[in-house]
Amino acid sequence: MALLETNDWMVLNNIIYQINFLKDSVEMRENFLKQLLLIVDFDSANFFLTGSENPCVLKSMAGYHFEEKLGEEYLDCYEKLDYQRGLMFDGKGRVYRETDIMEDKKRTETDYYKQFYEPNGWHYSLHATLAFDKRSVGTLSLFRKKGKEDFSYKDVFVLEMLQDHLALRLNQDRNEHADTDTKHTVHECVELYGLTRREEMILRCLVDGLEADVICQNACITNNTLKKHILNIYKKLGIKNRVQMFKLVKEKEN
């Protein structure tokens, strides 16, 4: 078992205190990553919540040196290419290095590594899947740049000491917001999130399942303009992709 120094235990205790003390979920997760740097070395990190209705949906990212655009790229990559998805959403809490599940040489040959790790200069990663009562509540990923050593067993041990505290906190947040985690009509989204008339029209088309070329034709806009509108809509709604959109927006106005 990895042994921590006295100062490491002090940092751990402070992190656990702040996991429970900070009220805002995003602030708590961002603060967690900053404090974690005191005892675990990493260059970038993301910390997602999972959907309350569909635990296989990632949402509400907090990050360290991990911009929103990069978060969207990550979501696109993991949905299409990530061979870890079976571990991320099976309702079991665990901490693992990516090299624990695949030989390093094989990792570098995967499309996931080439499309996500290489462009960002990363090589190694450490992950924590957070689960409560056999249900996924969040995921945490730490990344190291090329040239650094792999994450150590001590790093794994640190996250193992923290994962249950994080899972309990995220589950409490989910329960507190359960009553407000409901679907809205397109009209309600316009009122709640301040969508423009053009954004309202495009959102209706997306909810109706229309293809991009049809929406462009109806709105008399180019595909690039449509993509910009969709990104603005997603940003206002606080979502990342169409799957999350259907979890938030009703398909009928009733």
Beta-strand segment tally: 5
Low-confidence stretches: none
Spatial strand arrangement across the major sheet? 2-1-5-4-3
Mean pLDDT: 88
Shape descriptor reads globular
**Total helical segments:** 13
Broad structural category: alpha+beta
Element order, helices and strands? HHEEHHEHHHEEHHHHHH
Approximately what portion of the residues adopt beta-strand conformation? 15-25%
Largest sheet: 5 strands, antiparallel
| End-to-end Cα distance | 58 Å
Radius of gyration: 20 Å
Helical proportion? 40-55%
Structure description:
The longest helix has 24 residues, at 153-176. The protein has helices at 6-21, 25-36, 68-80, 85-88, 98-101, 104-107, 111-120, 153-176, 186-193, 197-207, 212-219, 223-237, 242-248, and strands at 44-50, 58-64, 94-97, 122-132, 135-145. The chain is globular and about 65 Å long. α1 (6-21) packs antiparallel against α2, α1 runs parallel beside α8 and α10 (197-207) packs across α12. The protein contains 13 helices and 5 strands. β1 (44-50) and β2 (58-64) form a beta hairpin. The relative contact order is 0.13. The mean pLDDT is 88. The protein has 254 residues and is an alpha+beta fold. It has a 5-stranded antiparallel beta sheet, sandwiched between helices.
